[in-house]
Amino acid sequence: MQIVHYDDDNWFKDHPSGVLHFQHLLRGEPGSPNNYMYVLARQVGEWSMPRHRHNFEQIRIPLVGSNTTYGPKVELKEGQIGYFPEGLSYGPQESPLTDLKPGEPLALALQFGGSSGYGFMSIEQRRQAMKELIQAGGTFEGPLYVSPEGKRQWGLNTVWEHVFGERLKYPRPRYNHPVIADPRRFNWLPVDGAKGVEHKYMGSFSERGVWIEMVKLGPGAAWTSADSGAERILTVLSGEGAAHGEDLRYMTTLRADPGDELTLSATDTSELELILIGLPPVVVPQEASEEYEVDPDPSPGQPIHVDSGF
User: Fold this and answer.
1) What is the DSSP letter of 52?
2) Which has the closest alpha carbon to 23: 63, 75, 53, 51?
3) Do residues 278 and 254 touch, judged by C-beta distance below 8 A?
């Protein structure tokens, strides 16, 4: 079990646009098909990304601001929850600040290995590879990498090849579109055996069965999360409470391993509302579904549609 508190001084400029700053909340196990990166992202300027795709899965939750598009003139709005399947192209992304000040737009993002078993490249691997590529004479210009010979290519494809020694592969997407849920349209239902506790179940995805739900504890209520097979990530969206002797407040994030019992309680004067993401282990099939492909690197001036990072 792990509990992480929000720290407003702990930001990293890990996005190729330079205007998304990340606070790293939780990380998985590098090299495992179950690896993941869970971040709080803060937008400090307007940014855009061309249409692209990933070889991993994403869950995005805008907390403040409706700035992230996943298609022409289509927004992932504040308070909604977006699931982006591995291999699915989306974008272009356009994120103007609109009426918000730099630093105000906030979003949670979980990037994790999908059912294909390709896993997720850790941020440490990514940072080290970029450092080595620069030391070798290359440069990064936004999302592009320029080799010492002047060849321009999608930067994070280059990073992937540098880390793993092979080109990226992309499973064909299991879904035709991102799945967008609006929690306000879901009903709160009682949790069996937990007085004063309700939840909204938003769904589960792919054969891995990753699920998303919201949990609400009424004032003074207590609830225990237990699952023998899945890792669970919970983040406080509002209210105050406690878990295993530690205070819970806005943006406190908790991780429970398979088999861990995580007991939470709300204060006597406050409801406690959390987002919960369940991560069962990836089971790599003995025989793949034969729907895999490798795309060539995009040429400069052509639409960029492949990616291995945020």
Assistant:
1) B
2) 63
3) no
Helix axes 123-135, 155-164, angle to 10 degrees: 100
The reported pTM is 0.88
The token pair that represents 207 in the structure block: 């054969």
Please tell me the distance from the alpha carbon of residue 53 to that of residue 166, in angstroms, as a whole number. Answer: 18
How far apart (Å, rounded) are the C-alpha atoms in residues 103 and 110?
A: 20
User: Which DSSP string do the residues of 156-211 spell out, in sequence order?
Assistant: HHHHHHHHHSS---EEPPSSSS-EEE-GGGSPPEEPTT-TTEEEEEEEEETTTTEE
**In 3-state terms, what secondary structure has residue 109?**
strand
3-state secondary structure of 127: helix
Mean pLDDT by groups of 10 residues along the chain of 310 residues = 88 74 92 95 84 90 83 84 92 82 92 92 87 91 86 83 84 90 97 97 97 98 97 98 97 97 97 98 79 48 41
Looking at residue 118, its pLDDT comes to 87
For residue 260, the model assigns a pLDDT of 95
Q: Give, rounded to a whole angstrom, the gap between the first and last alpha carbons of the chain.
A: 26
Alpha-carbon distance of 135 to 34, in angstroms, equals 31
Q: How far is CA 8 from CA 23, 55, 91, 173, 252, in A?
A: 8, 31, 29, 36, 12
The alpha carbon of residue 127 and the mean position of all alpha carbons in its chain are separated, in whole angstroms, by: 18
Collect contacts of 161-166 with beta carbons under 8 A, ≥24 apart.
162/129, 162/132, 162/133, 163/121, 163/125, 163/126, 163/129, 164/121
Q: What region does 118 belong to: left with phi over 0, alpha with psi -120 to 50, or beta?
A: alpha
Distance CA 94, CA 17 (A): 12
